[in-house]
Amino acid sequence: MTKLSRKLQTQKRHRRLRRYLIGDATRPRLSVYRSNNHIYAQVIDDSAQTTICSASTVDKELKEKSEKLPSDCNSSSIVGKLLAKRAIKKGIKQVIFDRGGNLYHGRVKALADAAREAGLEF
Questions:
Q1: Is 56 helix (H, G, I), strand (E, B) or coil?
Q2: What residues contact 89, with CB distance under 8 A and at least 6 apart?
Q3: CATH number of the domain bearing residue 110
Q4: Does 77 reside within a domain?
Q5: Edge-to-edge strands of the sheet including 29-34?
Q6: How is residue 99 annotated by DSSP?
């Protein structure tokens, strides 16, 4: 029996999670994608198949403040706060958190905690 690579394990977990995580207009899905260098988060209405708002470490607003954000928990918390601010501005207070198959630890946890502190409920 062969062992799956880390990427395949993440994809397998994500497929398993997506069976149950469905966002709608009243409670959209906060989806997180984590790469080696960056973290991306977006609030998605699955019923209309639209992205309501998004934020990432490569966002123009964050690049104006600093030249390059490192791939650490501090950057993830900045992205979480920015995403929560944008979602609340569009009238969204409750979301369903989709960790994207990643373990709820480190950068993903930092983003979630920052979004909660900024006012999102999940």
A1: strand
A2: 53
A3: 3.30.420.100
A4: yes
A5: 50-56, 39-45, 29-34, 96-98
A6: -
